[in-house]
Amino acid sequence: MYDYDYVIVGAGSAGCVLASRLSENPDVQVAVIEAGGPDTAQEIHVPAAFSRLFKSDLDWDLDTEPEPGLKGRRLYLPRGRTFGGSSSMNAMIYMRGNPADYDGWAAAGATGWSYAQVLPYFRKAEDNERGADAFHGSGGPLRVSDSRSAHPLATAFVESAVRAGHKRNDDFNAESQLGVGPYQLTQRDGMRCSAAVAYLHPVLHRPNLTVLPSALAHRVVMGNGRATGVEVGMGGAVEVISARQEVIVSAGVYESPKLLMLSGIGPAAALAAAGIDVVSELPVGQGLQDHYMALLNFRTRAESLMTAASPENAALLESEGRGPLTSNIGEAGGFYRTREGIEAPDGQLHMAPVLFHQEGLGPVAEHGFALGPCVLAPTSRGQVTLRSSRPDAAPRISHNYLTTAEDRDCLVNGVRIALEIVAQAPLAQAVTGPFDVPGSDSTADILAWASASGMTLFHPTSTCAIGSVVDPELRVLGVAGLRVVDASVFPSVPRGNTNAPTIMAAEKAADLITGAAR
């Protein structure tokens, strides 16, 4: 009953891609193990409602350990626990990163992962409403569209940023990443186009594809140095899902290293401390990166998205697929350099035409907007370790945000760039006062505020990186029949939102697994 060719752990962004691509071959049996359930909640599909999923039963609801660079503060880390994974609760921004990211990976030993080599997979995945060109694809599973909200406050931000000296950029995924403009989104007809919507739902009818929901992976089963299946808890019982060809771990940046360590793959000392026998000693969980963001919040006299949830806007969404409820919240933004002499941007802005504070959990009772600079190419590195040998225990997560001088300088300069934009018309005319901002533009005040108010930008990567845990074909070093396919394999965090790169990596992995890439 539980015997398949490929067993995929996780129906998140990467897992959905793999489920679709591997099951294209009717001669193979594919199983997907997902800890959550189907993505049926309305809040998943209505774009502006995504923050209502935070700390729900569709959220892994993780936290960091006390962060030394943030004066011991713990940060909330939302991650999707449903079909589509975090693509079912993200801000839907379609961003690939910078070509320098991928060329840097390849130069450091990630053979096959240069920008020229990954661009075809970005294009293969994409169905851009603007059509195909040298940079973009059309006809792929993932719909990419312009905003159907285009909130006036977001438009005012772009105009003010141009007045502050930033060039307008209508396509951050083409020739240049620098500049400001509206973001393209993974939406179809104004609704979320998650990896589940794009890849999984259209193929659920295939007789050779089985999805096992509400199933928690306990460990990868080994035999003679090879992964042979996955031990899973489901329906109150523990079952083994056997894999004739490969086990593919796509559980996410926090859960994938946890599962490997529970299976005896990781740092020997840490495994011994948890009472786990070592199968393969690898630096699993090390090298964690993320984008740390500090959101400046301002009150406005202009109407914000606070009033988006009206009957009129609901009708507009349903009848025409547009209006405030189609907003992804982070509607506009851009990329900038905080210092001279660097090849690629080191900062990114996200502009939300609504107050967004207290890590997205704060109440919204008045009109305003949020503008968040982030550390785009962080030098800080963290780790994921086991809290317990129990598979249902959350891992220990330490990001080490702002623990290097380079990251602190980048964020301080980014906050000053954001303040300069807010001071320009027309955005300045909409502001009635500060809601949550630094006490001044001094370095000390900015750092004190950013340490107390900053948050994750939801872009963790690199805990099972190419070169240290997996090879360039994403095979776990020293263990046959086992791969990791998700953002944990990235050698470093890309300069931008990470969902599109994760989908790209899974598209490439599918070709590596089937031999189509050779």
Describe the structure.
The protein is of the alpha/beta class and 518 residues long. 24% of the residues lie in helices and 22% in strands. The protein is built from 13 helices and 26 strands. The strands form eight sheets. Strands 1, 2, 10, 11, 12, 13 and 26 form a seven-stranded mixed sheet that branches. Strands 7-19-20-21-18-24 form a six-stranded antiparallel sheet. The protein has a three-stranded antiparallel sheet with strand order 16-22-23. A hairpin with a 2-residue loop joins strand 11 (216-223) and strand 12 (226-234). Helix 10 (405-422) packs across helix 12. The model has no long low-confidence stretch (mean pLDDT 97).
Question: What tags apply to this protein structure?
Answer:
518 residues; alpha/beta; seven-stranded mixed β-sheet; six-stranded antiparallel β-sheet; 26 strands; 24% helix; globular
Q: TL;DR of this structure?
A:
The chain has helices at residues 13-22, 42-45, 99-107, 115-125, 152-163, 195-200, 255-262, 268-273, 311-320, 405-422, 427-430, 443-453, 499-514, and strands at 3-9, 30-33, 62-63, 76-77, 126-128, 142-144, 179-182, 187-188, 191-192, 209-212, 216-223, 226-234, 237-249, 265-266, 280-281, 286-288, 292-293, 296-300, 332-336, 347-352, 368-375, 382-385, 396-398, 431-436, 455-456, 482-484. The protein is α/β, with parallel strands linked by helices. The strands form eight sheets. Strands 1, 2, 10, 11, 12, 13 and 26 form a seven-stranded mixed β-sheet that branches. It has a six-stranded antiparallel β-sheet with strand order 7-19-20-21-18-24. The protein has a three-stranded antiparallel β-sheet with strand order 16-22-23.
